[in-house]
Amino acid sequence: MRDRPYVSVIIPVYNDPARLRLCLEALDRQSYPADRYEVLVVDNGSEPPVRDVLAEVLARRPHVRLLEEARPGSYAARNLGISEARGDILAFTDSDCIPEARWIEEGVRALRNLPDGGLVGGRIEVFAADPARPRAVELYEMAVAFDQRKNIEVRRFAVTANAFTTRGVVERIGGFDPALRSGGDHEWGTRVWRSGYPLVYAADAVVRHPARATFGEIAWKMVRVAHGHHALAERRPLLHRLAEWPRFLAPPFSVLALIARTKELEGAGARIRAGVVAVAVKYAWSWARIRLALGLTVEAR
User: Fold this and answer.
1) Using one digit for the tens of pLDDT, what is the confidence trace for 181-192?
2) Cα separation, 247 vs 207, whole angstroms
């Protein structure tokens, strides 16, 4: 057992104690040896604080450490977790995720197959609260959210809902950009890739993620994503930024095509409902991007 590398699981949380409890319960059931991993929960300004809401839950789990990061943003929280981690392997997930029993085992296995380290992105399964009666927004999420294989193989990053790397990689390229509210995993993964490290998709390292259920939830997500896209765009030349404007107004044809061929959506009605959400989501993002590009304020957390 002692030849297993020590793993630090890092989980940022903001006002999500109920789902964090489920996440911690899932981490209790890992097949990986219990004395070879720790869990670092980083409270990112929750009200009330996690230490008050889940005091008993945390007290029963000596392998869980609670940290607090006052600076808003999940990437600042993850950086604090990295700085306090004891493990040679760093595993990232989110408070609303439910890791399957072999999640750490399979993520570590994939990472150890990379001689000099790198970045492993595991599979993220999106599920509806009531699979028999999914809402329109849930159907949309089930079709388009978290395509981790494409993220790894095409976009060259892994979303931090399910990612593994080594301490050595972080020490070489640095941590996440805390100035970003969204897109920091993309920016960080790009640095990993450009530094010559391999990126690998691990289909057997699985976390389950609940689909967002209301348009309000997903609209706020799009505002946060727009902030991240805008912040990254501001670092590029003016001509590159101007070339983005047609994209703000173009219909989401590629997303609609993806919805049309998603096997999990049964029947034309489900695809139409998901497609309507896709159009609304695209223009919620476009509204925020246009306002930000014009220097107007768009609130996001």
Assistant:
1) 888 999 999 999
2) 32
38, two tokens: 């720790």
Domain ranges of the chain: 7-210, 215-293
Instruction: Please answer whether residues 206 and 100 qualify as being in contact, where contact means their C-beta atoms are separated by less than 8 angstroms.
Output: yes
Contacts of residue 154, Cβ cutoff 8 Å, sequence gap at least 6: none
Which pLDDT tens digit goes with each residue over 154-195? 999 999 999 999 999 999 999 999 998 888 999 999 999 999
7-210 maps to which CATH number? 3.90.550.10
Amino acid at 277: V
CA separation for the pair 17, 2 (Å, rounded):
33
Which residues are 68's β-sheet partners? 43
Return d(Cα 12, Cα 79) in angstroms, integer.
10
Q: Which of 288, 282, 290, 247 is nearest to 140 (CA)?
A: 282
